[in-house]
Design a protein that fits this description.
This protein is of the alpha/beta class. The chain contains 8 helices and 8 strands. About 35% of the residues lie in helices and about 20% in strands. The chain is globular, with a radius of gyration of 16 Å. The structure holds D-xylitol-5-phosphate and zinc ion (ZN).
Amino acid sequence: MIKIAPSILAADFACLRERINQVESAGADIIHCDVMDGHFVPNLTFGPLVIKAARQSTALPVEAHLMIEAPQQYISAFREAGADRIIVHVETCPHLHRVVHQVRETGAGVGVALNPATSLTTVEEILPDINLLLIMTVNPGFGGQSFINTTLKKIHRARQIIAALGKDIWIEVDGGIDNDTASRVVEAGAQILVAGSSIFGKPDPGQACVELRRRALSGKMV
Ligand code: DX5
Ligand code: ZN
C-alpha cells in the first residue's frame, strides 16, 4: 500500500485547517509536520502548538518529524500535543535506543530518520524496535529542494534489509517528491511519500494529492 503524507511546511498557515481539510478530503493518509530548531538544520519552524492545531483540524494521523537537537527533551510535549507518530534523526541521538523506547513509552508510533549521507548501518540494530524508517531524499531544512538521485539505491537496500528481518516497518521518503520522482521512489521500495511543495505549493492541494498518488502507483505496476 502507498500512503501520501502532505507536509504542512509548504501550506498557508493563515488557513492551516482549511488546507489540511482539502488534502484530507482528497484522500491523504497522514499529516506530516516538520519541526526545525535552527541548530540541527539551518531553519526554524514550529513546535508543539502547531502539532496541536493540526491534531484539532483532522481525523488523520499526525506525525512530527523532529529535526532538532536533543529531541529527548521534547518527546512528551509533542506526544501531549497530539502526535500519533514521532520521528527522530539518528544524527541527533547518540543514545538512539533510549530515545526510541522513550517514544514508545508515550504510546506514539516511532520513526527514525536518516540524512542522505548517513549509512543504513547506523540503524541496523534498532530496526526491530521501530515502526518506520524515514529516508531523507534531500538534506533536511527546507522545502522545495531537488531530489537526490543516489538515495534510490539506499531505499532499495533498506527494503531488502527490512524484508530479510520479516518485520512490518514502513519505509518513508521525504524531500523533492513530485509527479516525476514519486514512481521512482515507489519502484525502489518506498511506501509513504511525504510531499510539501508538490501538494501545498499547488493552487489545488487536493487535486495535487490525488495526482501524486496516481503517479506513485504507476511506479508500483512497473
Ligand atoms: C525537509 C522536510 C520536508 C519538506 C519537504 O527538510 O523534512 O518534509 O517539507 O518539502 P518538499 O516536498 O517541498 O521537498
Ligand atoms: Zn519532513
